[in-house]
Design a protein that fits this description.
This protein has 204 residues and is an all-alpha fold. It contains eight helices and no strands.
Length: 204
């Protein structure tokens, strides 16, 4: 979405290439690997087997990832980006320089929002239907280690001189984090509501 918005609406690029790599190869990797250490669902054997024709990557998974959770993450990132730009007096149509302090803060806000949403998303993805609150938070220590590494790396990227220089970032104020927090809660509530509806229909 950030790159499509950049091309279609002629706005400043919300994420740079190096920041995309920071997400894909840095912050996102360990939490994703930790999901592979999840314990099997205790009720697995109580359900009938899946049809032989069912694919591993089903339409329901694709729709949930790319038309629900993914867009929520993207919207949070774009909202944080424009929150910083608008707060700094940016006007639509102007293109700040790559080293402009306001632009650096805006891309940092977009990056930070995406990573913050991924912290929520990793809990949501522990099970496609069951509530995230009922899975037990101590059953997968690797998940917590991965999240701790993810957040530590984000802080180093946002608030250290070498992180700023390498990833083209700038320190964020508390107001930006207070803007991102409701986005995280909204994603959590939206997915929990979706799961509750699916469970209700299955029970019916």
């Amino acid at each position: 979405m950030p790159y499509l918005a950049f091309v279609l609406f002629k706005i400043p690029l919300p994420l740079t290439i190096i920041q995309i790599l920071a997400v894909d190869l840095g912050t996102d990797m360990l939490p994703a690997l930790a999901l592979g250490a999840e314990k099997p669902d205790a009720n697995t054997m109580l359900r009938p087997p899946r049809p032989r024709s069912e694919r591993l990557l089903s339409w329901s998974i694709l729709l949930r990832a790319y038309l629900f959770l993914g867009p929520l993450e993207a919207l949070a990132g774009m909202a944080a980006f424009f929150f910083v730009l608008q707060g700094g007096g940016w006007q639509f149509g102007s293109m700040p320089g790559h080293n402009d302090s306001l632009y650096l803060q805006a891309t940092t806000a977009c990056l930070s929002a995406i990573i913050a949403m991924q912290v929520v998303n990793v809990f949501l993805c522990r099970h496609p239907v069951l509530s995230s609150f009922g899975r037990g938070y101590a059953s997968n220590r690797l998940l917590w280690y991965g999240i701790a590494f993810e957040l530590l790396l984000l802080l180093l990227i946002d608030y250290t001189p070498w992180g700023n220089a390498l990833f083209g970032t700038a320190a964020l104020g508390l107001d930006v984090w207070l803007f991102i927090l409701p986005c995280m809660l909204l994603m959590l509530l939206a997915e929990e509501l979706r799961k509750a509806v699916v469970r209700h229909r299955a029970g019916a």
